[in-house]
Write a structure and sequence with these properties.
Helices cover 7% and strands 56% of the residues. The strands form two sheets. Strands 2-3-5-6-7-8-9-11-12-13-16 form an eleven-stranded mixed beta barrel. It has a two-stranded antiparallel ribbon with strand order 14-15. It is mainly β. The longest helix has 21 residues. The radius of gyration is 21 Å and the shape is elongated. A hairpin with a 4-residue loop joins strand 5 and strand 6.
Amino acid sequence: MHKASLEKKPPRCWGAFLVVLVFGLLSGSVVHGQSRRVVNGLGMAPMLQAEYALSGDDYLFLGTNTPFSTGGFDGFDLTRAGLDAGYERFWNARWSWGTTLGVGAYSTNRDGGEVSPLTVDVVPELFLRHWNTLGNYNFRQRLGVEYLIPGGTGNESRARTRLRFDLDRLIPVGQVVVRPRLAYEAFAYLRFQRDEDAPKERTIDFTALRAEVGLRLSDHFDFTPWFAYQSTYNNVLQQTDINGNVVVPGGRRNFVTPMLGLDLRYTLFKGKQVFDRRQLPTQH
């Protein structure tokens, strides 16, 4: 089996990584201290992927995902089916750029049995990735800008950005390669101009902390079980009863969803001949 090569370079970015880690922990503490926290039921997120290795580290990929929840929230049961496609090209060992296209179809069921019409969202994205090494560890930073084109009526298209940091290591164990990995991602809508009467929004809209262990069984097949805490940050209006008494206070609200996932990936090689390459985790 061909194994990804790791560059032996001094850990010059340890300081930057520690700053990011401390900032994330501190910001999480501040958000928790000033906001109410609501924990949703466990979500499940299986994914099937096919990757086509081009030349060097370049690749194309296609994936399907069907996330679902094991417990409803406020009487809703959301089902979704998604299709993701992408391409990434490496300029050199450190820098790359790419593009993705996500399509998601979903409907909403209410307690009364009413089913909303099928809604389809489309999300094109451009991203830039930096790949560094910390000793035997891979340290990557991924910055993406995407544009949400929602389906349905009354929904507005919006630009948003994502920033992700991830750290992993490849550990050969016999014929298997194990990849423990930790990733943190922050997501925010881009607010170039906001009307004065528009509702106030949080600076960061979404974060995800993900831990996983990838297992590469051969040059063609690998799978990754993972667990994540996904948080959505909102400002909500207070709710009152018929007498005007506050039932649910308004203000800052953090909705936390624990997620359990399994990614299955099959890799094909251009020319049908296996060659050495650095393969990214299943979370492209």
